[in-house]
Amino acid sequence: MGRKLTLWSGIGVIVGFLYGALLPQWVAPADFVGDLFLALLKMIVVPLVVVSVFLGVASLESLGHLKRLGSQTLIYYLTTTSLAVFTGLVLVNLIRPGVGVTLASSASAGPLPPPEGMSFRDFVLRLIPTNPFASLAQGDILPLIVFSLLLGAAVIPVRDREAVVRVFQGLNDAILTLTGWIMGLAPLGVMGLVASIVAEKGLGVVIPIAQYAGTVVAGLLIHAFITLPLVLLLLGQRSALWLFHQVKGALVVAFSTASSSATLPVTLESMEHRAGVSREVAGFVLPLGATVNMDGTALYEAVAALFIAQAYNITLPLSAQVVVFLTATLAAIGAAGIPSAGLVTMALVLQAVGLPLEGIGLILAVDRFLDMMRTTVNVWGDCIGAALIDRWNQGKPQEAESP
């Protein structure tokens, strides 16, 4: 199904380019199809992220047995994801791949970034939803993520937490099924979005898209071959080159499937039997990482958000870029380990700073290739994390399990 969807989405991109270039005067039906696809994405993105973030935190109930291991894992994931987003923001501000496209839009950035003169204290307070249901209705994404994180943490000590988690797991399964249905319409949605953009701007958008893809790839390569190896070397005194040779099979699977979850069995086998990481560390760090550690996805979303802002000639001030940084970092927690999950949470980041969702049409043409690249970086980050945390815990006595 995944390969067929990729094939048909690629065909949709080609048809959209031809449609927009050859029949710009008849683009209205395609534009409607694209808008319908975006509306469906808007419908699913908030419940998907809220439930996924909750489950990602609530699943950490094993920290009652492995408090030290859990805290080390979360600190590593948050740190490396933040570094990935920072790398992406620096590159996209330097390269500015969207400058010159200048698409028309009535959108303005954005509902959540603090206005000039707002203090840091006020900005932090705005992250706390005084009414989560109002934030849900208004689409205030960051307060919803904060609420979901706190709610998931609060469930951990609850006596009947398993019952609560089962309810949310059922919701998550249903939402993922609905997301699959929506993504099944992606070929038509892609065709409509691409046709609308090409009809408006012509084929001149091809060069900026290539520059955008190059910016994402450059950021992923820097994070994979410089940032993560330095983290492992400086904090774990281990060679990333040696580790790469042990897990290269898992990285090939990650690249070909574009799915962290599908790669997980191979990743576990490689880390335990080839890299020599303890079963306890690998069994805790890697499954959690396949859910919440999405360095490549977070970097891609940050670059894509600023590229779309540049393409629509919307200036994002530093305060808005801070929101992009926070949202991309936290949204990575809610990105399921399935192909093109980052495309769904991309809408989350755009909404957080008031950017037009129509801009997603600009990046769909190259999304599959970038999805394969960023998934590989996601899995590589999981492997680095497991090796690092295993190094930290070598020789330390394990905590006894609670009865």
Structural notes for this entry:
There is one protein chain. The protein is mainly α and 403 residues long. It has one domain: Proton glutamate symport protein, CATH 1.10.3860. The protein has helices at residues 2-22, 28-58, 67-95, 120-126, 132-138, 141-155, 161-184, 186-201, 206-236, 240-257, 260-274, 279-292, 295-311, 318-331, 341-352, 360-363, 367-393. Helix 13 runs antiparallel to helix 17 (367-393).
Concise summary:
The protein is mainly α.
SSE map:
Elements: H1 2-22, H2 28-58, H3 67-95, H4 120-126, H5 132-138, H6 141-155, H7 161-184, H8 186-201, H9 206-236, H10 240-257, H11 260-274, H12 279-292, H13 295-311, H14 318-331, H15 341-352, H16 360-363, H17 367-393
Helix pairs in contact: 1-8, 2-6, 2-7, 2-8, 2-15, 3-9, 3-12, 3-13, 3-14, 3-17, 9-13, 9-17, 10-11, 10-17, 11-12, 11-17, 12-17, 13-14, 13-15, 13-17, 14-15
